[in-house]
Design brief:
The complex is a heterodimer. Chain A is of the alpha/beta class. Chain A has 14 helices and twelve strands. Strand 12 of chain A pairs parallel with strand 14 of chain B.
């Protein structure tokens, strides 16, 4: 009589290997994660994104050229990143329209050069009211003809084109094939001493297309003029919406945690087995009639009507022979004669039931087998009389 | 370690402080409180390891009967043991109840009674005992499983023993004890005695009458011969435990019916003064009862048969004649308990029958399926007619094999599972009456 449930110490010792293995695996995973340096963001046009729709290539080349590139995700961080407003370019890309008018106003006052990448309607209204979106440019390369893009004759198409009604606006990157050539992918306006560039040709900056046409030269010229570049991607930190924590009651989170704890306790309560399972070898269960059933289904699926009725006939004739007092060696003719003598009727009919008729359909088969059963019953009745 | 539903309830009760105080600190405090209570509770629980176990139960029972297993638990620890015990019997031991609550003070002993109603013959085992010991608050428990093996041998039911009294009465009619002594009702010459009224005149021995002393007081006497049934014959029962014996007919495996038939036949034959040897065989000898007589024979037979289950291998008929020869070299009644379903499957049996029938009287006993006969009568619809045809075909196959066996000089007994044991016994009595043993 021994106890087979391990004590806590034995259990620990027994599972030491697995505990060690899991800890080792976690360490290896953490180490690998640290070595890789985490996951690069997949935000389009982010200077940290190395995928084809990121702009890491441009940012890195600007850094090599001596431009101090800073990436920020909130207006506060952007304000702090700007040291000398006159020597700073701010690049802003806000696809989710997070910033409100006041924040945009603040942003415009931060530096003397502001590049808006693919701005939405609200941003245009606030910072460059004279510029309107003109849809997508044509697929042909855009013609660069302005001081901002001086060394680059052509730039990749893509993004958005703009029209402007403002008199002092400087337009660049003409989209040619739209009939009237009045749509531009780069427009510059002045707003209270700040040069605001509205850039629609986003494709030119991406890692995937920066080497096409004269994109690289264009991007470097536009963004690399000032010694400091602040690349501002507004995030949830700028959003003015109330925090979810402010609208939930204080007890909700602890109540959910308590629910989880209760569930865990219930799992322990119902999941703990009351001793190990007790094994037992069970015998196989084979029904003896399975061969018979299988054969019946075979007959039916292959419509073996003649074979089926023959089996019934042979069995019936054997039983009829016994009923009429004939031996098992009696011939069919003798049995038929004896049956006719016993129950009367026409010999031809009885011979047809017992021997000659071939059932052509399943209905005929059922009819014939019923007549065989009837014949058997009537012979039994006559023998009893 | 185990927790009770009360523990879960206690954890859930933490909703009150959480609602009242409405912050995470209340939750943490409550959880710490619950944990503290649990630790205190478990530290006052009796140790489920410090016990002495013992189990008392009968060694063997018949299938269908119930036995009581008494598990005694002695608390050798330092604290009262209160909680639940599970006696770990195999499922087919039919244990009820499987769990019992206990409260054993220090140094005392308590009995846990479990009623066992096995629904399968063979050896039913109990492997271990699990004790879950709760603390005084009933929140948390310590649990330990102890090995405590016991075996209950479940014997074949021998339900056909209800046929035994009537068959024994018919056997006694054969005996010299009854007045009606007709020649041919047994072939062994018993004695010569004087004629009394009522004796069959055909049994008068005229030579003995002539030899009788005419000068005696009663004058010359008519002398009659008396006969008694033959005794001291051998009956060898060979039970097929191969794959075909696993098949169930009317929810009873063929081998169980064969055991029932063998037990009834052995009970009858040993009362009639014959010697019975039983062999259970497939490709090797699975069980063998030899040289036993009287009540010992039956108890040894059921004990041997209790644990034998059919094996899914083909019966080796070729070694059966040699097997019978190891039992006896003289003429014997050899009863083969097997199945005669299909000509193909019975080929092995048919090939060795001539060797057996040359020296022995052979009876082949086989279970017939009542469901097949019922299927031949059902002609209701298309499916039923095809079933009837298949059933007729099965019956024809059996009839062909039976005819072949009879042609080889052996005898065939078939019957439904309930009818086969008395049918085999009747055939034995008929053979005895005819003096063919």
């Amino acid at each position: 009589m021994t106890t087979i449930t391990p004590t806590i110490r034995q259990g620990l010792r027994r599972s030491l290997f697995w505990i060690g293995a899991v800890v080792l695996l976690l360490l290896v995973a953490l180490g690998a994660l640290a070595a890789i340096g985490g996951v690069t963001p997949t935000t389009p046009l982010s200077p940290e994104n190395a995928a084809t729709d990121g702009t890491r290539a441009v940012a890195e080349v600007l850094r090599q050229q001596g431009v101090d590139v800073q990436v920020t995700d909130s207006l506060d961080a952007t304000t702090q990143a700007v040291i000398d407003p006159s020597a700073t370019t701010i690049v802003m890309h806000d696809p989710d329209a997070i910033l409100d008018a006041g924040q945009l106003d603040t942003l415009a006052g931060l530096a003397t050069r502001l590049v808006l990448i693919d701005p939405g309607f609200a941003v245009l209204q606030e910072l460059a009211p004279g510029i309107r979106s003109a849809g997508a440019p044509s697929d042909d390369p855009l013609e660069a003809a302005c001081p901002a893009a001086a060394p680059s004759p052509t730039v990749s198409s893509g993004g958005t084109a703009y029209r402007t009604t403002e008199s002092g606006a400087e337009t660049c990157l003409l989209s040619r094939s739209d009939g009237v050539p009045d749509a531009y992918s780069l427009v510059r306006v002045d707003r209270d001493g700040t040069a605001v560039w509205v850039l629609g040709a986003t494709a030119a900056l991406t890692n995937g297309e920066v080497l096409d046409h004269d994109n690289a030269a264009f991007a470097l010229t536009l963004l690399g003029e000032a010694p400091r570049l602040v690349w501002y991607l507004p995030s949830a930190a700028d959003a003015a919406t109330p925090d979810i924590q402010d609208i939930t009651p204080g007890w909700l989170t602890p109540a959910i945690a308590l629910l989880v704890a209760t569930l865990l306790a219930a799992v322990l309560w119902r999941g703990r087995r009351f001793g190990p399972l007790i094994v037992e070898n069970l015998p196989v269960t084979v029904r003896a009639s399975e061969t018979m059933e299988g054969r019946a289904r075979l007959y039916q699926s292959s419509s073996a009507r003649l074979r089926a009725i023959d089996a019934i006939r042979v069995g019936t004739i054997g039983r009829l022979a016994t009923r009429c007092g004939l031996g098992s060696a009696a011939s069919v003719d003798e049995v038929i004669a004896a049956v006719v003598a016993a129950v009367g009727g026409v010999e031809h009919d009885i011979r047809s039931i017992l021997l000659d008729e071939i059932p052509e359909t399943d209905a005929a088969l059922v009819r014939l087998s019923a007549r065989l059963a009837e014949l058997e019953t009537s012979v039994a009745a006559s023998a009893r009389r | 370690m185990a927790v009770s539903g009360w523990f879960v309830g206690l954890v859930a009760l933490g909703i009150l402080p959480v609602l009242v105080f409405g912050n995470g600190l209340a939750l943490a405090g409550w959880l710490v409180f619950v944990l503290l209570v649990a630790v205190i509770d478990i530290s006052f629980a009796g140790s489920p390891r410090l016990v002495t176990l013992g189990r008392e139960l009968p060694a063997r029972i018949r299938l269908g009967e119930s036995a009581t297993s008494v598990l005694t638990i002695t608390n050798t620890g330092r604290r009262t043991l209160r909680g639940t015990v599970r006696d770990g019997w195999q499922p087919s031991a039919g244990a009820a109840p499987t769990r019992a609550s206990i409260a054993i003070p220090v140094g005392e002993r308590r009995a846990v009674r479990t009623t066992l109603t096995p629904f399968r013959r063979g050896e039913r085992r109990a492997e271990h005992v699990t004790i879950r010991s709760f603390g005084p608050l009933g929140l948390v428990a310590r649990q330990a499983t102890r090995t405590e093996s016991s075996v209950l041998r479940v014997l074949p039911p021998f339900s056909s023993r209800k046929h035994l009294p009537s068959r024994l009465a018919r056997l006694r009619e054969l005996d010299g004890a009854t007045s009606v002594q007709v020649r041919g009702q047994g072939t062994e010459f018993d004695s010569i005695r004087e004629y009394v009224r009522g004796d069959d005149v055909r049994s008068i021995d005229w030579r003995a009458t002539a030899r009788s002393d005419p000068s005696s007081a009663a004058g010359q006497q008519l002398m009659v011969r008396t006969w008694r049934p033959e005794r001291d014959r051998r009956v060898v029962i060979v039970i097929d435990s191969g794959r075909t014996s696993a098949a169930r007919i009317a929810n009873e495996p063929r081998i169980d019916t064969a055991f029932e038939s063998s037990l009834l036949l052995a009970a009858l034959a040993t009362r009639a003064g014959d010697r019975v040897d039983t062999i259970v065989f497939d490709r090797r000898i699975r069980g063998r009862v030899q040289g036993a007589a009287g009540p010992e024979l039956l108890s040894r037979m059921v004990d041997t048969m209790a644990t034998i289950q059919p094996e899914l291998i083909e019966m080796d008929w070729a070694s059966v004649p040699a097997l019978v020869r190891t039992v006896t070299s003289h003429r014997a009644l050899v009863v083969l308990m097997t199945s005669i379903d299909a000509p193909g499957a019975s080929r092995g049996l048919l090939s060795v029958l001539p060797q057996l029938t040359r020296t022995h009287l052979v009876v082949v006993a086989s279970v017939a399926d009542p469901g097949v006969i019922a299927a031949t009568r059902d002609r209701g619809d298309r499916t039923a007619v095809y079933r009837a045809a298949a059933a007729e075909r099965a019956l024809l196959d059996t009839a062909r094999v039976s005819a072949a066996i009879r042609q080889l000089g052996a005898d065939v007994v078939t019957g439904a599972p309930t009818d086969l044991p008395p049918a085999v016994a009747d055939r034995y009595i008929a053979l005895k009456r005819a003096g063919r043993l």
